[in-house]
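Action item from last week, closing it out:
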Amino acid sequence: MKDYLMYLIKRILSLIPVLFVVSIIVFLIIHITPGDPATIMLGEDATTEQIEELREDLGLNLPLPQQYLNWVIGALQVDLGSSYFMDESVTSSIMGHLSPTISLTIISQLVALVIAIPAGIFAARRRGTIADQSVMGVSLLGMSVPNFILGLLTMLVFGVILRWLPVAGYAPLNTGLWNHLQYLILPAVSLGTLQAALITRITRSSMLEVLNNNYIKSARAKGVKERQIIYFHVFRNAFLPILTVIGQTFGGLIAGAVITETIFNIPGIGQLTINSIERRDYPMIQGIIFFVAIAYVLINLIVDLLYGVVNPRVRLDRK
């Protein structure tokens, strides 16, 4: 237990350089991008003196290293600064837009898992058959179609033509579970399709690798039921690679929500990001990207720690 705790501490400490590098890259990209927040805020009719005065008030006239250092000091105190265009802090704004993104991300991941794991197991059990080829063909199509195109198609078919679901918008959970879900089904399918395709292919390949082991053949020779072999022996041992991809795709869903939320007019982190980029709201953009980076590395840390729960041998190897 002590060794595993030390491993956990080392993993957490290893995230610090990653976040540090991410913060530098984000800061530099934002500040070398054409466009001046002061000019956008004051409009084209503003004089040079007015623009320079506002730049001084915002701290934009300071050297870049000093601007970055000021931002890092604030971030360490959970203060990501204040928006240039909204009368609230970056942290408060992110928290206010977080709920729709979390709901969309979780439902998208559930959609992906409900489709992908059964499909991957089904294809692995029928390797080389038409059924296997069909599943792989559909998964390849799912990986090829951009989520914004799929989103527009689902809006057209299920929202406009069939009128089964709302075309766009968002309803908070406190308005009712079904009312909340019906606004998220189409964007969740749009966002989760790529993840479903990836997890399907990984599930199939991991299952096939375990199915070829001798102990599986021995279990069959002993008369163990096929369902028990598949779910208690094969899938359990094939789950680690699947878990890795689930963690990676879950983090990717947060980033992918930017486009999906814009298409479906969901007031989440994605839509906030687009609006901030259009207005060159530096503190907001930095805060959002840094928040997403933290979420991504934490999700992968959790997945890494779950390895020891799923397979105790992994935990022993790390001692």
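Closing note: The chain has a mean pLDDT of 84.
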